[in-house]
Amino acid sequence: MIPLQVAGAFHTRYMESAVERMRAVAETLAPQDPLTRIWTNRDGSQVVSGAKFLELMVGQVSSPVRWDRCMASFAEAGVTGIIELAPAGALTGLAKRGLRGVPTVAVKTPADLEAARALLDGAA
């Protein structure tokens, strides 16, 4: 694991009270299965069930992020680009080192959207 500097107790057991509140909201939702590939940051596995995705979203509030496993899954799947949404920068920085040669864009402000669009256009 790679410890990251964060501004709060996100992705730790200290967020358990938030998990319960999110779970209550999640129970009111009717998730659909994803139409595109989604990987969970919990263990890097691909998520194909909407219900499982929702369960993982609730749990991720107090679960560690396993970006190392995500990058391994991305490499195995042949991912050709990564766009990180705000707040952005930490994960694309790790990806530049862990997935050498894979283009990345960190969208921190609206000014970064054009670079993200260019990356998507290049992948199409």
Can you put this structure into words, describing what you see?
- The protein has 124 residues and is mainly alpha-helical.
- The chain has two domains: 8-66; 80-124, no CATH class.
- The chain is built from five helices and four strands.
- It has helices spanning 16-26, 50-59, 67-77, 90-98, 113-123, and strands at residues 38-39, 46-47, 82-85, 104-107.
- The strands form two sheets. The chain has a two-stranded antiparallel sheet. The protein has a two-stranded parallel ribbon with strand order 3-4.
- Strand 1 (38-39) and strand 2 (46-47) form a beta hairpin.
- It is globular and about 40 Å long.
Q: How are the SSEs placed, and which strands pair?
A:
Elements lengths: L15 H11 L11 E2 L6 E2 L2 H10 L7 H11 L4 E4 L4 H9 L5 E4 L5 H11 L1
Parallel strand pairs: 3-4
Antiparallel strand pairs: 1-2
Helix pairs in contact: 1-2
Query: What pattern of helices and strands is seen along the backbone?
Result: HEEHHEHEH
| Helix-residue proportion | 40-55%
Count of individual helical segments: 5
Uncertain runs = none
Enzyme class: transferase
Catalytic activity: holo-[ACP] + malonyl-CoA = malonyl-[ACP] + CoA
Keywords: Acyltransferase, Transferase
Organism: Naasia aerilata
